[in-house]
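Record type: monomer structure entry
Structure origin: computed from sequence
Chain ID: A
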Amino acid sequence: MSETESDELKQLIALSKDSSRRGRRHLFNNISDLFLTDDERLSEREHALITSILSKLLTEIETTLRQNLAEQLSVLENAPHDLINLLANDEIEVARSILFKSHLLAEPDLIEIIQNRSKEHLLVIAERDDISTTISELLINYGDEDVVSHLIENSDAKISRESMEYLVEESKRIDRFQEPLIARHDIPTDLAHKMFWWVSAALRRHILQNFEIDELDLNEKIVAAAKTEYDYDVAANSSHADILIAELAERNELTERFLVQTLRSKQIRLFLIGLAVKSQLEYLKICRFIYDPNAEALAVVVKSLEFDRNSFSAIFLLTRNISDRDNVKKITDPEEVELMMGFYDKLSVKNAQATLRFWQLETDYLEVVEELESEEDEQRVYL
């Protein structure tokens, strides 16, 4: 440090004896300028002395001056850690730039702030570009919906599988979590497909078009489930519809044309049983797809069976009118029809078959569907 700067430092120390508000402000401004200069570095002793003075002055000067200092220090790589941490724990107007920008805040510092400071502090931390899985978990545990939403929307934040599973479950009741979760690059495919059952029609289409089932993972599930493959047994007291479908399936006569015709003839139960057998999904699951006001799941089943466009169009339109429930439209909007047909055209047979196979084998999917069904059972009458 030069002799001139050393003299300036001595003068500033002398100024510290002025306890007036104006004197404190003057001292803070000058000592901050000296600390932030790009000239020769201060000696270790001088550096420590200035840091000590600044730390003490922080409690005595107005917010604007502290805020200005925080903004300047937030981008420095060699600022004193104690001073950075002190500013990060200040009121949010001062702390904001440090919490958002400074990489000098270590994980223990952030943990302490999350556990002890305000919601506003957590909101800013949730927007940092270096959030670890530990910090993410703490933000989820200590933050409210706003904080968690900020975290989910931060694509740079690392979120563990365990935390992601929790957030996916929470998205059942908190709609605002759904779209940003699906938009994350790191959400596992199986969790995205799990959300399929409670998200909007647009997000369902996004999931099916952007989250392809991993064939290796699917093969492992197939092997694990080999002993529990679907087998449609006709009990002694089965209905005529069950017996007919079983006989047709055995003779390989359970065709696309037959199923569409049963629906046109309003033989609804026959159609449902037939589609369940063709898709190897449980009857009640097929019923849910039919009664669901969003038809994406139905489209996946039909596409996986390689039914042509005209057959799906007929099935889609006819199944929109078989329920007395208020949330199933009696008159289908032309725009909705066009949208669904466009979705069906874009959906590949390979992707649809992989998705259907995933539904057949994934136990979590069955649990989710059963849980959602239980909420609607009192309103539903199966044919």
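Annotation 1: Residues 222-232, 378-383 have pLDDT under 50 and may be disordered.
Annotation 2: The first helix runs from residue 3 to 15.
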